[in-house]
């Protein structure tokens, strides 16, 4: 009996420690002050007396993005850069517009998990979840434009587009290394490096 009580107590403490994983903010809000270069796990806080309602709102997600580019997609972010009131809250979102067969190319978010929901049109699924750091993409598989909204678990999730990171890096990766890594002729790598 005593063993079972110890096991139950241990499990209870483990569950309590899971609840304590994400600490609560130390203040009600910390609107980002874009006029200072000081950074402490986010942006420095504006003086509360200069905070206004406009620090907590953004207008632009209702507008279709310009998809006239080689990918046929446009990401409209709402991060702390666009909405200062998100600072320290650990959330952000994006709108993604896609032409028919347009793609949001393979990329990763180094600081956020993402959940994406299709609002209009057809992607390869209706709702997706991408754990932090996982390489992912989306493609419109329909014959009409598509729109998705995604929520991210960081006010500054970051984005690393794989093709840009590999073929457009500065300094360049050696063409021989990339040709061997991707098992293609070096001329293919040379061509890709001129594009990115």
UniProtKB/TrEMBL annotation:
GO terms for molecular function: manganese ion binding. Keywords: Apoplast, Disulfide bond, Manganese, Metal-binding, Secreted, Signal. It comes from the Eukaryota. Oxalate binds at residues 104, 109, 114. It comes from Erythranthe guttata (Yellow monkey flower). This is Germin-like protein. Coiled coil: none annotated. InterPro entries: Cupin_1, Germin, Germin_Mn-BS, RmlC-like_jellyroll, RmlC_Cupin_sf. Residues 59-190 form the Cupin type-1 domain. It holds the Pfam family Cupin_1. It is found in: Secreted, Extracellular space, Apoplast. The keyword Manganese applies. One of its GO terms (cellular component) is apoplast. Belongs to the germin family. Its main location: secreted. Disulfide bonds join 30-45. Mn(2+) binds at residues 107, 109, 114, 136. The keyword Metal-binding applies. SUPFAM superfamilies: RmlC-like cupins. Residues 1-20 form the signal peptide.
């Amino acid at each position: 009996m005593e063993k079972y009580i110890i096991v139950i107590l241990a499990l209870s403490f483990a569950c309590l420690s899971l609840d304590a994983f994400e600490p609560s903010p130390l203040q009600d809000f910390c609107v980002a002050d874009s006029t200072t270069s000081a950074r402490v796990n986010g942006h420095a806080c504006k003086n509360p007396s200069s905070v206004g309602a406009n620090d907590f709102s953004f207008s632009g997600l209702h507008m279709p993005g310009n998809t006239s580019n080689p990918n046929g997609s446009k990401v409209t972010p709402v991060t702390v850069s666009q909405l200062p009131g998100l600072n320290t809250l650990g959330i952000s979102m994006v709108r993604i517009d896609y032409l028919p067969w347009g793609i949001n190319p393979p990329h990763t978010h180094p600081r956020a998990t993402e959940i994406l929901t299709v609002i209009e049109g057809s992607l390869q699924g209706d709702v997706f979840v991408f754990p932090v750091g996982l390489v992912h993409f989306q493609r419109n598989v329909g014959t009409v434009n598509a729109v998705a909204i995604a929520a991210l678990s960081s006010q500054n999730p970051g984005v690393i587009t794989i093709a840009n990171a590999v073929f457009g890096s500065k300094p360049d990766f050696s063409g021989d290394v990339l040709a061997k890594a991707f098992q293609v002729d070096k001329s293919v790598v040379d061509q890709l490096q001129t594009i990115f």
